[in-house]
Amino acid sequence: MSDFLHTALLWLEQASAWLEAFWLAIVAPVGVGLAVWVTVHVAQHKRDARAAAAWTGLVWLVPFLGALLYLLLGVNRIQRRARQLTGGGIDTLESTESVAEDTVQAPQLRVLSRLVGRLTRLPLTAGNRVTMHEAREALHLMAQAVDEAQHSVFMATYIFGNDAAGKPLVEALTRAAARGVQVRVLLDGVGALYSLPSVTRRLRKGGVRVERFLHSVAPWRMPYMNLRNHRKLMIVDHTLGFTGGMNVRAGYVREPARTHDLHARLEGPVVAHLLRTFAADWMFTCGENLTAEYQGQQAPGTVRARGISAGPDADFDKRRLTLFAAIGSAEREIRIVTPYFVPDQTLMAALQLALLKGVKVEMVVPRKNNLRLVQWASIHALKWLVHGGAHLYLSAPPFDHSKVMTVDGHWVQLGSGNWDARSLRLNFEFDLECYDGPLAEQVNTLIDGRIAGARRMDDADFQAMAGWRNVRNALAHMLEPYL
């Protein structure tokens, strides 16, 4: 035994000496090989040349670590397993009532409607009722709808706080599950950690079936940490829907409120689009196949509407192209309310062209953002639009998390998506496009209310800005592909 140990120690000593002498000759080719592999992979799979250049530079300048970061954050491994398992059945909406695009009242928006229809492969549905609500009221309406549910409640959200906003909703979901309602709750794997302890334990204790999207406690088993499900959906009894930008957080219900937001209550055939998206995400997460057929009235209202499901999978780039088309279709005005505005160059160019065309562009962003880096980058981007004639308004606290857009007083977009790289390329988002004058008027009234309490920032304000602030904002904007 002693001879064996002696031999083993001698072998280890010799191996150590050999590695000490030749480690550079071993490590260097491995590092170069990894860098070459990443460069080839980036060139083949990255559509954005700036992102491709950034990743290529990182893996060559920071060997090994750059390759590791690319494997964790840069490789898109997502496939919509739900579509594979169902044979595409979730994408089939034969029961949905569609309407011809030529019935859209504003002629300049008919081309937009046809384009989004081809992009999403979903019909523009007629006969919907869409009502906008501030966050506090929306949370109350959602809990009330759950208490009135008879058959099913499907809910997906990014953040579900275990707090003053989340607990009443948990109690309503628990009561629904206790009376035999099919309750399914989908939380994002990262978003669920915003509230500790997580609300998942409280939900499961109440008999609610809850799953986490792209979640693993082991980082090495979690190759999707940069791809988040940011959608906010609730569908009750396959007839009533809620969607928008609102998470479930106590900041909405405290006195005074710490956050403002908008959410929509939906009735009509467009609820089928919410069902389709939730069913696909649920199948992807846990393999259970849910019925995605709308079972409500065909014409409870007059709004023409369509869901836009976007993400880094088969739905890649649908949101960015929709925004690009909507901006291009505008003839009179574009009004945008968003908490995070760091768009890519294509959307910036589209807005600049709209300004040159004589379209009035109004932007409303928070005066004080909850993400400082994003705020600095946003101000740098907005500077060029203001210089081109856009009207910029900084809304007063509390922080406004609302995400809406109107075009020419007839087209409305609302949903979970922001104007940044994360929403445009990495997140799974759900937006709703609506063609309706009265709804646009309601949303524009809400925008007017925000502008009334906001401070306008014009070209003179940017020129008076301290030099170091300009440099800080410009440096932050260089991170635009990653914000």
Mean pLDDT: 86
What Rg is obtained from the alpha carbons, in whole angstroms? 25 Å
CATH homologous superfamily of the largest domain? Answer: Endonuclease Chain A
Q: What proportion of the residues form beta strands (DSSP E)? A: 15-25%
Total count of strands: 17
Poorly predicted runs of 5 or more residues:
79-97
CATH architecture title of the largest domain: 2-Layer Sandwich
Q: What's the N-to-C terminus distance?
A: 60 Å
Shape: globular
Placed side by side, the strands forming the largest sheet appear as 4-3-2-5-6-8-1-9-16-15-14-10-11-12-17
Integer tally of domains = 3
Instruction: Give the class-level CATH name of the largest domain.
Output: Alpha Beta
Determine the CATH topology of the largest domain: Endonuclease, Chain A
Number of helices: 16
Largest sheet: 15 strands, mixed
User: What portion of residues is helical?
Assistant: 40-55%
Indicate the structural class.
alpha/beta
Task: Please describe what this structure looks like.
This protein has 483 residues and is of the alpha/beta class. The chain folds into 3 domains: 2-74; 125-304, Endonuclease, Chain A, CATH 3.30.870.10; 318-482, Endonuclease Chain A (Endonuclease, Chain A, 2-Layer Sandwich). Helix content is 44%, strand content 19%. The protein has 16 helices and 17 strands. It has helices at 2-45, 49-61, 65-74, 81-86, 110-120, 135-148, 166-178, 199-205, 271-286, 318-329, 345-356, 372-387, 421-426, 437-452, 459-463, 467-477; strands spanning 125-134, 152-157, 182-188, 209-213, 233-236, 240-244, 259-260, 262-267, 303-310, 333-337, 360-366, 391-395, 399-400, 404-407, 411-415, 429-435, 454-457. The strands form 2 sheets. A 15-stranded mixed β-sheet has the order 4-3-2-5-6-8-1-9-16-15-14-10-11-12-17, sandwiched between helices. Strands 7-13 form a two-stranded parallel sheet. Helix 2 (49-61) runs antiparallel to helix 3, helix 10 runs parallel beside helix 11 and helix 12 (372-387) packs across helix 16. The N and C termini lie far apart (60 Å).
